[in-house]
Amino acid sequence: MSDLLVLSHDDVRRLLPMDECIELMEAALSDLARGRAWQPLRFVIRPPEEKTLMGLMPAHRSEPQRAYGLKAICIFPENPARGLDAHQGGVFLFDGETGEPRALLDASAVTAVRTAAVSAVATRALAREDAKELAILGAGVQARSHLEALPHVRSFERVRIWSRTPEHAQEVASQSPVAEVAESAEAAVSGADVVVTATSSREPVLERAWLAPGAHVNAVGSSIPSARELDTETMTEAALFCDARESLVNEAGDYLLAGLSEESIRAELGEVLTGSAEGRRDAEELTVFKSLGLGVEDLAAAEHVYERARAEGVGSAVPF
Predict the structure, then answer these.
(1) Could you tell me which of 203, 6, 21 has the C-alpha nearest to residue 111?
(2) pLDDT above 90: percentage of residues in the chain
(3) Dihedral angle, C-alpha 192, 194, 154, 283, nearest 10 °
(4) What is the pTM assigned to this prediction?
């Protein structure tokens, strides 16, 4: 009988610092593009008449050592009103040689960090080098995480936060000395070089007319076919990048509701990172990275946290 290492929310946040996670996510997406990692499309359970859902996200990595991971995540949209993260669940890490469960990590902590870290990877690869202004639409967990992550890859001189609840926007803005609250989504986005949409909206909160020439957009909030944050004009006029094509064409309302075809997808982010596909073409081009979240990202984060936890004696070991 082996021990299962259980790692709490606080354990994960301490052992997965943002700067390290950004490099982990770049490596994970590069490995996916090179065929060193594999994942199926996530399986989503949506009970009839329920506003909630559960997603199952398995993944396997073959190099440099084998490993399996599985994230089981529940999405409860009303949780923020309860003072809880909308994402609740766990990430299981399995030994790649024996299949033995090695660790169980708090999934909301993993999701909060790795999602923003992937946006930072996309911003580093696709945004203009001289980007100075950042806009964040939303004021939840991902807004906070993106405000932490993106300054690792660009030197922002001004940040504008917008939320339908101004008090929440003020709470997020207080994290940064250069952040301020915008009166509207348009005011936040106007003149921004990098934009993050991290809302729970089912209808577009971002319009193409608001975006400056050469802006880069990280679209994070919508992950189901029936909801979108970006309007059709933004999607049709942008150079479109994704974390995985299969996820985009099956799950992204931003893509599906705009009526796009697969030919409109320039590349997966991992393809840009490995040099097998083209990224931004010029300083005036509008780029959009549609993030849906991948099992390979959770697996990479879980392995990193597990190894650090073992080295530092962190977590609760449970006979299993």
Answers:
(1) 21
(2) 92
(3) -90
(4) 0.95
